[in-house]
Amino acid sequence: MHREKIYPWQLFSLIFIFELGSAVLFALGIQAKQDIWIVVILSYLGAVVVAFVYTRLFYEYKCGLVEYLLKIWGKNLGSVISFMYIVFFLILTAVVTRNFMELLKTAILFLTPSAIITLLYIALITYAVMLGIECIARMSSLYVIIVAVLLVIQYSLFIASKEVDFSSILPILEDGIMLPLKTAFQITLEFPFTEIIAFTTVYPMLSKPQKAFSMTLAALTAAAVVIALNDIFIISILGVNETARISFPLYIAITMVRIGFIQNMDALVVIILVINGFFKVAIFYYACVESIQKLFNFKDYRFLLVPLSAFIIAFTMIYGRNYTEHIELSLKILVPYIQLFVQVLLPFATYIVSIFRKTAC
User: Fold this and answer.
1) What tens digit of pLDDT does each residue of 207-253 get?
2) Any stretches that span the bilayer, and where are they (predicted)?
3) How far from chain centre, in Å, is Cα 104?
4) Is a pLDDT exceeding 70 seen at residue 360?
C-alpha cells in the first residue's frame, strides 16, 4: 500500500466529528442531573491529560499504537496487549453501529429488518475503509463545515422555538461536586472523550507530526463545547426526568421545534446523525485493521475486510437482545470497566513503563 498522508486540518475534522459521533445521541452524564454540562467539562479536562499521553508516546517513538506497544512491553507481552486492542476496536465498531441501527429503526425505518440496516451500513463503511484513511479524512474536512453550519442553525432554532427554559439547569452543583466527578470518571471520560485512542493508529500518517497534540486538543475543545451545549439545550427543553427516560433525547428535542413552516425535521436530523456515526465507525474499523496489519506485518489489510465485516454484523445483532439491554451492557460493563482500563489506565501504565525503560538505558 502507498504511504497515506493526512493534513492537520483533516485530523482536526476527523477527531471533531468522531467525538460528536454517537455522543450527541445521548445526554451524557445525566446521572448528575442538571449538572450534566459540568460533567462534560470535567471529562474534557481529564481527556486533555490522556491525549497528552497518547501524543507523547507518538512523539517519543514516532510510530503508531501497535509498534510502540511492542517496543515498550516487549515482543511477547506487547503482542498480547496489541491483540487486545484489536479486539477492543472491533467490538467498539459493532457497538457504535448498533447505536445508529437502533436510531434508524426508532426514527424512520420502523419496519426494516435490523439485519438489512446493519448490512447496508457496514457495507458502506467497509468500502470507505478499503479506500483508506486519506479518503475518509478528505471527506471529513468537507463535511465538518456542513456540521458547523447545521449546529448554528440547530441552536438558533432551539432558541427561536421558545421551548427552552434555561432555569432547568439550576441550581448548579446542588448535590456538590462529587457526583459530577464520579460520573465524569466512570462514564463520559471514557465515552466519548478518550475513545480518541483510535487515532494513535492515525497519527503516523500526519503530514506535520508535531501538530498531533495541538490538533487533538483543538478538536477535543470544540467537541466538548458542542456536547455541553447540546446537553444544556436538551435539559432546558425536556427537563431532567424526561431526558433520563428517553433513549435519544437530542432527536426528541429537535422534533419539538415548531417555527411556522419549519417542523417535522426528523428525517433530516437522523440523516445527519447517521453520517456522523459513519465517520466514528469508520475510524474504529480502520484502527482495527491497521493494528492487525502492523502486528502481523501484512502488506495490505484489505483481504481482512470481508471476514471482519461479517463478524461486526453478527456481533452487532447479538450485542443485547434489545436496545435496553444493549445500553445496560455498555454503561454497566463496557464503559466503566473495559474502556476505562483500555483507554485510560493501560496508556498511563505504558507511558510510565516507557519512562523507566528510557531511564534504565
Assistant:
1) 999 999 999 999 999 999 999 999 999 999 999 999 988 888 888 88
2) 12-30, 36-59, 80-101, 107-130, 142-161, 212-234, 246-262, 268-289, 301-321, 333-356
3) 18
4) no
Nearest to 51 by CA among 185, 203, 205, 228: 203
The angle, 0 to 180 degrees and rounded to 10, between the axes of the packed helices 114-131 and 75-107 is 130
Tell me the torsion sign for CA atoms 338, 69, 300, 7.
positive
- Rounded to whole angstroms, how far apart are CA atoms 286 and 21? 15
Domain count, the chain: 1
Residue 320 pLDDT exceeds 80: no
Looking at residue 189, which CATH number applies to its domain?
1.20.1740.10
- What is the rounded average pLDDT of the residues 284-300? 96
* Selection from 19-33, 117-131, 268-282, 347-361 with the highest mean pLDDT: 117-131
Residue 1 placed within a domain = no
The 3-state secondary structure of the chain reads CCCCCECHHHHHHHHHHHHHCCHHHCCCCHHHHHHHHHHHHHHHHHHHHHHHHHHHHHHHHCCCHHHHHHHHHCHHHHHHHHHHHHHHHHHHHHHHHHHHHHHHHHHCCCCCCHHHHHHHHHHHHHHHHHHCHHHHHHHHHHHHHHHHHHHHHHHHHHHHCCCCCHHHHCCCCCCCCHHHHHHHHHHHCCCCHHHHHHHHHCHHHECCHHHHHHHHHHHHHHHHHHHHHHHHHHHHHHCHHHHHHCCCHHHHHHHCCCECCECCCHHHHHHHHHHHHHHHHHHHHHHHHHHHHHHHCCCCCHHHHHHHHHHHHHHHHHCCCCHHHHHHHHHHHHHHHHHHHHHHHHHHHHHHHHHHHHHHC
Is 107 within the bounds of a domain? yes
pTM, to two decimals = 0.94
What does the DSSP assignment read for 53-104?
Answer: HHHHHHHHH-S-HHHHHHHHH-HHHHHHHHHHHHHHHHHHHHHHHHHHHHHH
**Host domain of residue 286:** 8-360
Q: From the CA atom positions of the chain, what is the Rg in Å?
A: 20
How many CB atoms lie under 10 A from the CB of residue 245?
A: 11
Task: Give a yes or no: residue 17 inside a domain.
Answer: yes
The answer as to whether 29 is a domain residue is yes
